[in-house]
Structure formats: C-alpha cells, structure tokens
Amino acid sequence: xxxxxxxxxxxxxxxxxxxxxxxxxxxxxxxxxxxxxxxxxxxxxxxxxxxxxxxxxxxxxxxxxxxxxxxxxxxxxxxxxxxxxxxxxxxxxxxxxxxxxxxxxxxxxxxxxxxxxxxxxxxxxxxxxxxxxxxxxxxxxxxxxxxxxxxxxxxxxxxxxxxxxxxxxxxxxxxxxxxxxxxxxxxxxxxxxxxxxxxxxxxxxxxxxxxxxxxxxxxxxxxxxxxxxxxxxxxxxxxxxxxxxxxxxxxxxxxxxxxxxxxxxxxxxxxxxxxxxxxxxxxxxxxxxxxxxxxxxxxxxxxxxxxxxxxxxxxxxxxxxxxxxxxxxxxxxxxxxxxxxxxxxxxxxxxxxxxxxxxxxxxxxxxxxxxxxxxxxxxxxxxxxxxxxxxxxxxxxxxxxxxxxxxxxxxxxxxxxxxxxxxxxxxxxxxxxxxxxxxxxxxxxxxxxxxxxxxxxxxxxxxxxxxxxxxxxxxxxxxxxxxxxxxxxxxxxxxxxxxxxxxxxxxxxx
Length: 510
Ligand SMILES: Cc1cc2nc3c(=O)[nH]c(=O)nc-3n(C[C@H](O)[C@H](O)[C@H](O)COP(=O)(O)OP(=O)(O)OC[C@H]3O[C@@H](n4cnc5c(N)ncnc54)[C@H](O)[C@@H]3O)c2cc1C
Ligand code: SF4
Known about the structure:
Shape: globular
Largest sheet: 5 strands, parallel
Helix content: 40-55%
Number of strands: 5
Bound molecules: flavin-adenine dinucleotide, iron/sulfur cluster
Radius of gyration: 23 Å
Distance between the termini: 66 Å
Mean pLDDT: 95
C-alpha cells in the first residue's frame, strides 16, 4: 500500500502533541526521523550536545513505536546513513512514495529551506502543520509588530498576559499589582553565598542513551567537551520530573537571585528546562501553569513566579517572533561592524580570568550556563572584544544543549552582541568588571582587579568596557539609555583613554 502521510520529525520537534501527528493513521502514515552527520557537524559541536539530541530522538522514536506508529529511523549506526536531513527525506520519498509530507516548521531556517527544496524537487506536497507548542503564531507576531513605533519586549509581554489571562486578576489587572518585580529581582548572594540549594536531579542513562554515548564517543572523539557524568533528561517523563523538581525546590528564590552568579555553580535557582523545552519534550504551558499553581498554593512568591513566566511567555515568544519575521536577512546583521574571531579560550576555558575560566569550563562539562553568565559574562566579553556576531552565535550553538537557531540567533547576535542595532534590546549590554564583582564572588579569587582599567593587573572587562564606549561613542551618545555611560567616558582625560585603548589592543592581540 502507498503511504499517505510521511510525517517528518526533526531533533527539536519531539512533541508528543504535535499537530503534524493529528489524524495519524497507523495503517497509512509513517514518521521519518534522521540522525544526520551534517546536523552534528555544521558547526563545531560538543559531544554532550550531539549525544543529548540523538538520545532524545531515539527515546521519542521508541515512544512512538510503542504507541503503534511506524517510524523510519536513520541512525548514525546504520551502514550508510544519509549525511543530511535533505538526503534522508529524499531517500524516504524514493522508498515509500508518500502522497504528502507533513511537518511543523523546523527551528532552523536552513533546515526548512533544505526540506522544502527536496519536497518541491520530488513533486510531493509539503504541508506545514501549525506549531501548537508556542503561545503565539508567527502571523500573530507579525500583526503585533506591523507599523509599531515602539517595538519592545515589555509591550509584547503585556499584550500576551492580557491575551492569555495568565497572572491577571478578575478585573484585568496584573496579579500582585505590577507587571514586573525587577526591583526585587536583581540581588547578588552577598558574602554568605547562595547557601544550600537542592541540587538538580540527575537521570541515570538507560541502554538507549548508553548506546548513543558510546557512538558519540567513538565517532566524535575530537569534538569539544565531555560525556562524563551524563545525566540529562532525555525522555518526556524525565523532562517533566526536571520541571517539577525546579518548581518544588528552586522556584521560590528564582526571582530574587535570577541575576546572581557564583563560582562553581550555574544551576543555582534556575530551572534548567530550556533544553528539554526547546526539544519540545515539554510544553511551555506545562512550565508556566506549574509555576502559577505554586503561586496560587502559596508555595512561591509573585516576584519569582512573574519573573519565570516573563521568561517563557515574554522573552521566549519574543525572540521566536523576531527570528521568523526577520530571517534570513537577520543572520547577516552586524550593526557595530565587529570583525574579530571568537577567542580560542572560548573553546577551552584556559584563561587567567577567574570568571570566564569557571563559566567556560563548566559549559564544556555541562552544556549549560544561566542567563546572566551568558549575557554579562561570556557574551559581554565577546561584545567588547569585537567578535563577529554570527561567529558568536555559531560558538553558542556548538556548546549549549538548548541552542537552536531560532532562539540562539536573536539572543546571541541581537541581545548579547547588539548586532541587530537594537531590535531585541534597545541598548548593548556593556559593563565593566565592577558588575561581575557586584553580582558574584569571582573577583576575590582572580589575579586581575575589577577597579583597574590600565596596567598589568587591570581587569580585561574593565579595560574593554571603556575601549568599547570610546570606539562607539558617537553611535551611543544619542541613545538615552547610554547617555550616562558616554558622559562618564568623556570625564576621562585623553592620556587615560589612550592608555586604556592601548591596553585593549594588547588584550585582543592586535
Ligand atoms: C547570549 C544569550 C544566548 C542565549 N541563547 C539561548 C539559546 O540558545 N536557547 C535558549 O533556550 N535560551 C537562550 N538564552 C536565554 C536564556 O539564557 C536561557 O533560556 C536560560 O539561561 C536557560 O536556562 P534555564 O532553563 O535554567 O532558564 P531559567 O532562567 O530558569 O528561565 C526559564 C525559561 O525561560 C526561557 N527563557 C528565558 N530567557 C529566554 C530568552 N531570552 N530567550 C528564550 N527563552 C528564554 C527558557 O525556556 C528558560 O528555560 C540566551 C540568553 C543569552 C543572554
Ligand atoms: S577581576 Fe575581572 S576578569 Fe577577574 S573575575 Fe573579576 S571580572 Fe572576571
């Protein structure tokens, strides 16, 4: 019998509730999944990231088969697996002659283009099912953006709160009397540190995952990072467990210490659900509803719950809308004309800077860093170093388990590197070592001094901060959110500015 629907499921589409599976008839339909070498190598990727995706894919395959569905699965362990997703689809069309290909929009422009091309060349209809995973559709985002003079996340977020009724009172006011509680949410841990925080649960790899770990160790021996102590949630059950572990043990203090950093630990009070939510093992509604239920039960305060909801209902939906309404041009943006490579130590963690040494080494071990480590640690350094925005995104995709094109690009190129000139955020996130000193315990154990901007002991962040402002002074003097910083630069004498710019050149190796 000929196949009716061939449902294509990519590694970031492991959604048991996917609209692509609506009306699936086990007698006439089949699923296609492909572990493609290209997906593991199109950027230089860590072993952990590769293993995470393939392990989750194999578990999804098994769950679908258990539910009685045929899954044609191309594994890298096969004799001659297709090297690309496009080749996998092309071969499957040749073999099964489907009437229709069905899929939801993949999370990467590149993949969508490639698959559409294959379908069109083969003359098979490709139906894109709506993506129910997100709260808003791309069309709704477009409608929100059209003709809008003030284009900021805050307005989008408030619109989403009103539209969904989430954290809204019966008389349509924001719960807790305010739209956000940022003032309560920017605290460091102080000298006492974070204290005891329940550690994140670890998920013992079963036989399916162990097979993947062996395969990755063998085939990707030269890839960065390590598979040691791999305990990531790679099934829906484990992902749900990870969510509820956060709600029960860390949500309470999520808001207050959202921006704090601490040597040796990334999880702190964060959820660490980004990777499983981006693979669609869990639905964002499951996360948001669980947090709101904790608030309603009196188990978590409003500043924590609103902060968490804002990340998912606001930021996550915002960056997705920006990606799909501005690609492919968005990927080429480079508003600050940054032209340097990502420094080598970003792949090894080998640096004298105590903060970056810890963050990057941990990232290589775990595939994770929290938001402020990304924005005000690693991303900040790359911004002030002057790395090409797209190269920073490539680096980011290579090392983070949660990095998929639609979410990494606007966050990295846009928010962190200001490559889009102010679309994702209205100002560049630039700061000196004083910020890291205030929000962490790193500087006390570092050979550099965050207060010094010139000389051998100067903190590289501080030197590069002033150099960054000096390089872009004219551009930022008219940005109301940057005026104070530019004014402080102008208080410095010409000799001081010359000295710190010379020091910045030495740091950059130019
Ligand atoms: C430079 C930079 C790059 C980033 N790249 C990615 C990326 O590739 N993938 C990714 O999922 N997140 C990215 N983020 C957003 C954010 O840092 C991560 O989602 C978060 O650190 C993941 O950890 P968590 O699950 O513990 O999140 P929590 O701090 O517990 O937050 C809860 C959830 O909110 C969502 N979220 C929060 N902020 C954002 C945001 N800006 N964009 C999208 N979702 C958000 C995530 O799903 C996250 O799991 C990036 C942020 C920056 C500054
Ligand atoms: S002194 Fe500078 S480089 Fe050292 S830990 Fe502090 S911010 Fe990082």
